[in-house]
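Retro notes
What went well: the complex prediction finally ran end to end.
Inputs used:
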Amino acid sequence: MTKNPTGASAVLRDGPRFESVEAALSVAIHEHRLTPGTKLGEDEIGEIFGVSRTIVRAALQSLSHSQLVDMRRNRGAFVAQPSLTEAREVFEARELLEPRMARSAAAFAKPADVARLRRHINDEHAALDAADPGRALRLSGMFHIEIARIADQATIAGFIETLIARSSLIIALYWRRQSALCESFAHHALVEAIATGDGPRAEDLMRSHLVDLHSALDLRDRTTAPRSLRDALRR
Amino acid sequence: MTKNPTGASAVLRDGPRFESVEAALSVAIHEHRLTPGTKLGEDEIGEIFGVSRTIVRAALQSLSHSQLVDMRRNRGAFVAQPSLTEAREVFEARELLEPRMARSAAAFAKPADVARLRRHINDEHAALDAADPGRALRLSGMFHIEIARIADQATIAGFIETLIARSSLIIALYWRRQSALCESFAHHALVEAIATGDGPRAEDLMRSHLVDLHSALDLRDRTTAPRSLRDALRR
DNA sequence: ACCGGTCGGATTGTATACAATATTGTGTCC
DNA sequence: GGACACAATATTGTATACAATCCGACCGGT
């Protein structure tokens, strides 16, 4: 098992450190190829990547700390399933942090930064054209993280990174079909505001962008998700 | 080594899960008994707590994710040493998040919550009277976290928890002696504002409390705080 | 047939063994 | 005497072995 059977782990480049496995799992979750609730068996993952459970375990623990994965003692690791409450909290946090970051980004952005943002948007479009909505979603998340990075706030950027990750899970769980315009316009406008150094406008655009996103989710407290069998079966 | 030599690990109650080791190390760091830069050898820690390196490793990894510990490949784990830049970022983030949390806490606080906050302050005073400033500092941090919890924002409370942790390291590195009144008054006023449901006042008090704290640090860009031996010993 | 308990397989939790790497000490050459 | 090369040691990185726990199937009783 220690050998690397037929390129099963082509993703792993130099050293099979646990970060590689973590990144691969993280990307799969962000792209909705691993959906909330999926069991992540240690042996299985280890076999896929050609590493021992030691490595897999470290990767899962790290993902668990980012709340992408839920580890239950003696039960195993599962892709996390944020509750409605958590979903609302995540978006409240984003609405608190990200507009401020957008404003700072507009103040600090250098030409190279703007270019990078534009490239992100291009990649997003390309992914949509290639009928790869998972990849588009992941890139869209990276766009938001990039803005926090440009604002020169690595600490907050880290927070936003975990919020984006959980947002991906929330979208997987609570997205409502009908709204499909999917933000590429919003991102474009945001870049323009940042490019021209218009901080207040960038802040507003980010805020309304997040509100749009938030309202494209179905976070009503529907008592689906039956709280008790008695309630669920009383007909 | 698997046996438990002479109660060295009295801290560990039921199962020697890695969380116990993590908590013990975390408390020691918060109380400044482990200072920034200290090497955290895996064997040594394992021997102290009577667990194997597997457990220690998991604990260190978790602490590393909280940025209390810096793990360098093939080098080992060290208590983190936040740079001046990181220090400034941490306080900017706190000044963005915590006043908002204080306002929400004032809106949501139930009598039991207020009682818990008062108890925290009492414990803080007791620790100071007992000439245990480390414990007082740790309790002071828990006070801030508790406010975010009362605001019913578990996600943001988690962020603040890591910010508090890093603040503790920052205080260890950059605290300037002269300012010593050490916040107990500020906390008291804050609790009163929260108890009376005065959100705006709580927000203001928190903001100025953080500004006070921030300005009690010496975050000037002096090249002191010897980042490297080269700098430290060039005379 | 249904309910309960018990046994077996599978999976996770932990410890240990081995390999890889960095650091320190020593010796030799200039 | 000092600088470099090399060997010894210590520490971390990874894999594997073993123990503990859980889940499901089987089976006997009612």
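What we learned: Residues 84-108 of chain B form the longest helix (25 residues).
What to try next: split runs per interface for comparison.
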